[in-house]
# Entry
Amino acid sequence: MKSWRTAATLILTTPSSNTRAICGRKKIVHGCFSTNYAVLMLQRSSKNNFFPNAYVFPGGGLDHADVTSKWLELFDNIDGGFVKHLDRLRLDPSMRTTSPMMLCDAASSPDNLPPDISYRICAIRETFEETGLLLARTKVPSDEYMLGKKTLYARTFKFEDSDMAKHWRKKVTKDAKNFLKLCHHFKCVPDIWCLHEWSNWLTPICKGMKPTKRYDTIFYKAAIQSLPEYLVQDNEEISGLERKNPESFLEDYFNEECQVGNPQIYELLRLVNMSDHEDLITFFVNRGKEGLERYLPLLAVSLDSYPVALYPGDEDYQFGFFQTEETLPLQLNCTSHEMLHDFKDKKYNRVITGKGKRGGIKDKNIVCNIEMPFGHLSPADNRLLFALDSSKL
# Structure
């Protein structure tokens, strides 16, 4: 059985007007789900071994360079106040419930950084490698800033020109150790204080699935006021970069115009519950202190052979049960129709997938009627999301 590789992902939003093109589309998101902010997503290259051509949030696997204690030396050398503020990121596990990935050091060494810090560095480094966007600061955050009394926008480091950004981006992509050297050179530190815990997803597996890499990924949430002009995909792992309202990505997906994984769809459906960007920032800053629930999907099948992914909180979810390459999908005792129409007295947190050529996108439904733990948002019901018919416009 393959083990999971630890990784970190960043859901990054910016203020934006809603400029969706709706002409000729069969499925159009209802106006009540319109947002005034955009989310950054990247399209994986067709050559990528993991989830090729799909749209994802920026991020990637943890590197040893992300966990070295040399980062503490950097923080202290630039300004000792940075070290003091690190304690705000290391929440006391006895005061909250958190994901197992946050309870131990991924590199299993007492000399390395705590995961609360190293995963944030990883998310910022990977975002820089994939897009050229560097979240970094040169001054210590004020107490007022840290306590959330000011709007918490992450700091975007401004390079002298695009050539300088390209030069350092190439060096860091070649060797993650160069990210620390970059910070020493410019006397800056990764703006880890503006990354807030959002969710934790594990890659599922069962018999019959195509072999794939498996990741234990923490999703962070952050916001910036604008994107730099030199933002561009790396043309290696990433072939495209788009900044659109979350409902626009959902329209693209459910109109079968792009590929997006279940975790990303689930998180986009969470986002459209918050129409205002300032409200979203207030929410994720406060909610990030509550803790995380690890999502390991259990793969199942309905009586009429529809694939189903079960998430924690679902009444058919079996905690402590691990599927492997030799484990058959769980057999559910109901049909897909019953799941979609007779769930009033049920507790569901699941994705029901269709049987179409493209993974049944048109027939895919996210059904969630449970109360989310840790004060989190439930995903919007995608059947309510598309209440308009383009033929009537």
In short: The longest strand covers residues 5-15.
